[in-house]
Please model this.
Amino acid sequence: MKTDDKLENIDSEDIDDLLIEIEKSFEISFADAELSSITTFGQLCDLVMEKIKLDNVDSCTTQQAFYKLRNAISITLQIDHKSISTDLPLTVILPHKERRHRTKKLERHLGIKLNILSPPGWLITTLGISLFASAGWLFVDTFVGALGILLTYSGFWFAQKVGKELRVETVGQLAEKITRENYVRSRRNPKTYNKNEIVDLLTDIFSENFGLDKSKLTREARLF
Model:
């Protein structure tokens, strides 16, 4: 195998975290013994398809996720479903002042976490600088440095709780996100899946989480 097949800027801990997300999305479970023999992206795709014990049905999951999302928006936010299209900006249905409240209503109806809200970038940058500075203070004054780190982590926690910035822009992008993160629950019939979608979906998951060029995610691409 070529040495340049190794995916860059990905460590084993990042992949471990992503495997947990894949297990959640497809409602499967990996055994350590199964993963020990996995070295390439193609082998991982094969393992996921092997683990899915559902009926194969040739229907689009993202489309079904969109229909579920459109129905939830129509019912919970009282918006005419005919006006809800894939390119509808989320800012229209989730105005800034009511964004967290409306998002929670959608989550309750759908029965899943959408994870679409985040703090503003400038705040995350500021907290990052604070964390770096506090770590430096550990060498000058341990108490001040430790207190700074504690307050900064508290700031990160609070920022995540009150953040209102959208991670995706349109209803269609949200439907795609729901499909990636909750594949089985996105299906009209959760006892089915579309085998033809799995490789593309896993490619999207890796690309989205690691910022990878999809062309790099070949079957031979080495994960470890």
